[in-house]
Structures are given as C-alpha cells and as structure tokens.
Write a sequence for this structure.
C-alpha cells in the first residue's frame, strides 16, 4: 500500500512540476514540519548570520588573525581550483603530444644554441661575481647571496574579474609565503599575495593596487612603477617633467622596500609625455615579463639578511688560492 | 552538488572578454534552492557557502556570507508568493536580489579602500538576471530527478 501511495504522490509532484506554477512542492509532511519548526526563527538566524559575518569582516580587516580559518576552508575549496583547470591542462598536454618531429627538432636546435650562448656568458659571470665581492669588501660593503627559486605552474582559474591575480599550484606546503617575489624568464611578474596550503595567489605588477620600486638601468634614477589595470602597461607617476628618462630605457628593480631583490628587469619605457601644467610627467612602460602567456612562474627566496664580508678577509684569500691552484 | 558546479563556473577560465559578464552563479543556485526547498536550505547554508565563496575568490572573509544570507532571507520570506509568479516577474525579483548582493559587496569594498571601481562591476547583475531562466530550468530538471529517486 505504501508503495502505491508513494507512486501517486510522485505523480502529483510531477504534475505540479510540469504545470504552470513550476515550483516543485515537497510532500505534505515537509510542509507540516515547517509549520512546527523547532529551533530559532528565521529572523534570529538572519541576525546571527549577519552579526557573525560583520564580525568576521571587521576582524580580518583590522588584523589578519583568520589565516587559520581561511586555510582550513581552502582545503575544501582548493580542489575545485585544480578541477577547473583540468580541461585547459588536458588541451595543453594534447597539443604538446601531437607536435611533429620536425618542429621538435627545430626547437631542440634553438634551445641548444641559446644554451651555448648562456653557458659562455655564465663563464664570465662567475669571475665577475668574485670581482664584485672583492670590490664590495674593499668598500666595506656587504654582499647579498644569490636567490633560490621554485618553479610553480599557473592554474587556469579566474577568481576576481578586475584584479590581476593568478593562482599557482604551490602553497605553504612548499614554503611559499606572502611577499615573495615572482619572476619569469624575462622579468618580474609580481609578488605572492596570499598563500594557502595547496595554492598561492600572486598579484601581478600590473594590478591597480600594486606598486614596485624601480630604477632606470642607464642612470640609476629611482622611482616607483604602479600597475595600470592593463596587462601590458605600467605607469610611472612620480617623475618630474625634466627627469632624465627616454623611451626604450630599461627599468630594473631597485631593491628598495626589501620585497624584490635588486637588479631584475621589470619593464621598458615606451612613452614619455611632459605635462607642463602639472608637477609630474606622464610616463608609461611595458612589462618585460609575458604576463598573459606564461604557464610557469618562478617563486624566489631571496636571502634577506646580507652577509658581511668585511670581517673575514682570511676566508677571501683561501678562496682565491683555491681558484689559483687549478 | 549543484552549488559545487556553480562554484566551478564562478572561477572557470573564461576568455578575458567574457570575464566581466560572468554572473554570480552561486547566488543564483542558492536562490533557486531557497525558493524550491525552503525547509531544507536555510540562512546558515547560504552563510556557509558565502564563506566558501569568499575563500574561493580571495576576498575579505564574510562579505559574500553577509550578502548571500540576506538575499536568502528575503527568498525564504517571500517564497510562497514567488512560486506563483510567472517567469518574467521572477526575473524582476532576481534582478533586485542580485542588485542587493552586489550593492552590499560594493559598500564593503568601498569601506575597505575607496578605490576607483569599474562601471563593469555592475554588469553581473544584468547577466545574472538574463541567465536566471537557464539556471531555473536546469535546476528544475535536477530537482525533478531528485524527487523521483
């Protein structure tokens, strides 16, 4: 009997669903349950929800003490990010697999050539580095150690429409932490902005809220490059009209502020317009990094504490001897 | 399950031209379930999924939670009347719901840093309204399959 009753009930639901009103009413027992609902009323629930969310907003806005809650929730949400980027990755892999032998061979040859060139440059670099250390020691200066990098892959996820923020597949599990600089093969990409256990968000240098201290490579003129909101443009808003800067000048990181290590290329100046009626000139630059075409990024650990060399001349000489012997 | 799908849609890698038009799928799905199964989907569900959306889109924790729970509160209050409405009138209601949620987000953003916001910030309200029939019929299909089970 019960089964037949259920069947009729379902038919009723079906009719109602297909009918004009369109809304599937639940079976009557549910409606009755609602009438005698236990627990707090809907108004109280709303009040509780609103108060908790406002409390969350205020606490997180004032001081970042909710990182634990966020990283806990991100365990639920981060797999979604991986899931979403699966189709794009599959496409990428497929196009990698079906490339022809000829194109691979050509690419291999090109890479080989560029590797040779870089290798010869590196030969000189070592000598130059040593010389630099020696000169800095003479000047009673300190020398920064080299940086360590971690290659991370971008997940094809677009979380917020008006922000230049990308998500990568390395997080706090790999030791990624906020404010780490991020590079690609051509230049500075941005900095780590938030890191969760499985993923990390990277703010690109072109984001409206991002600014990076730079210097002109030609003459060492210091300034700040601010993101424009366009992926291919940076703005230098704080240079006077008579500043010594020309289109084509390379901007490198100045190392001021401590976030970005010194000396990485950031952008090339492409337009200089002096505005006689305003205190500052209007200057734009194009980022060196290919912000929209990258798949892999490098997250950098820079050695923040400079190593003093002035105190150990003995060490220096032994190293030189070691070099001299072979 | 459908909310998970909506979250995927929310962060899917749309081409750059489409991104500003991407409607708030999670809220649309929540509204549907709030209207259809008011005894199952409560304000705390909305609050929780709002919190997850906050983490997903990397916002200040609590802003989507606040917006979603308010909208679902209105849906729960009005669900008996709204079920009788024709689709066009529902669309109007959805429009105001989406507008309310976007307005809250806008206020919170402005409190955070009164930065210049694009006019395109409001586009998802309109596209969301346009996509409501799609969500409605898709989820009605899901609901039908569920209640037949």
């Amino acid at each position: 009997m019960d089964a037949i009753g259920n069947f009729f009930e379902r038919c009723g639901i079906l009719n109602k669903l297909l009918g004009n009103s369109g809304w599937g009413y639940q079976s009557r027992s549910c409606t009755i349950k609602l009438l005698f609902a236990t627990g707090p009323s809907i108004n109280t629930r709303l009040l509780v929800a609103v108060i908790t969310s406002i409390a969350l907003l205020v606490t997180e806005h004032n001081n970042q003490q909710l990182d634990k809650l966020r990283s806990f929730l991100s365990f639920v949400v981060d797999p979604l990010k991986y899931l979403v980027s699966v189709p794009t990755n599959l496409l990428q892999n497929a196009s990698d697999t079906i490339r022809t032998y000829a194109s691979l061979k050509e690419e291999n040859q090109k890479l080989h050539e560029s590797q040779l060139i870089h290798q010869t440059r590196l030969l000189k670099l070592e000598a130059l580095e040593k010389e630099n250390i020696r000169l800095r020691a003479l000047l009673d200066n300190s020398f920064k150690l080299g940086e360590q990098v971690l290659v991370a892959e971008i997940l094809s996820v677009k979380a917020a429409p008006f922000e230049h923020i990308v998500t990568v597949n390395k997080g706090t599990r790999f030791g990624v932490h906020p404010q780490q600089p991020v590079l690609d093969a051509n230049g500075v990409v941005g900095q780590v902005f938030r890191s969760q256990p499985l993923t990390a968000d990277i703010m690109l240098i072109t984001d409206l809220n991002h600014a990076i201290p730079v210097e002109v490579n030609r003459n060492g003129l210091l300034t700040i490059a601010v993101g424009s909101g366009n992926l291919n443009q940076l703005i230098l808003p704080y240079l006077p009209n008579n500043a010594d800067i020309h289109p084509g000048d390379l901007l490198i990181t100045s190392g001021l502020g401590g976030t970005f290590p010194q000396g990485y290329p950031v952008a090339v100046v492409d337009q200089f317009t002096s505005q006689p009626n305003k205190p500052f000139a209007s200057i734009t630059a194009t980022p060196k990094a290919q912000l929209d075409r990258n798949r892999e990024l490098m997250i950098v650990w820079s050695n923040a504490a400079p190593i003093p060399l002035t105190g150990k001349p003995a060490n220096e000489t032994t190293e030189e001897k070691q070099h001299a012997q072979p | 399950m459908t909310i998970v799908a909506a979250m995927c849609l929310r962060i899917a890698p749309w081409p750059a031209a489409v991104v500003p038009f991407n409607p708030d799928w999670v809220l649309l799905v929540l509204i549907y379930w709030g209207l259809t199964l008011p005894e199952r989907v409560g304000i705390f569900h909305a609050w929780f999924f709002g919190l997850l959306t906050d983490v997903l889109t990397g916002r200040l924790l609590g802003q989507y939670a606040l917006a979603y729970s308010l909208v679902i509160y209105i849906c729960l209050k009005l669900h008996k009347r709204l079920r009788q409405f024709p689709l066009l009138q529902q669309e109007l209601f959805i429009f105001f719901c989406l507008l309310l949620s976007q307005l809250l987000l806008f206020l919170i953003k402005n409190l955070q840093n009164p930065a210049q916001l694009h006019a395109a910030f409001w586009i998802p309200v309109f596209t969301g309204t346009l996509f409501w029939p799609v969500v409605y019929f898709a989820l009605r299909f899901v609901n039908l399959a569920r209640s037949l089970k």
Chain B touches chain A through 58 residues (CB under 8 Å). The CA atoms of residues 102 and 122 of chain B lie 7 Å apart. Residues 24-148 of chain B form one domain. The radius of gyration of chain B is 15 Å.
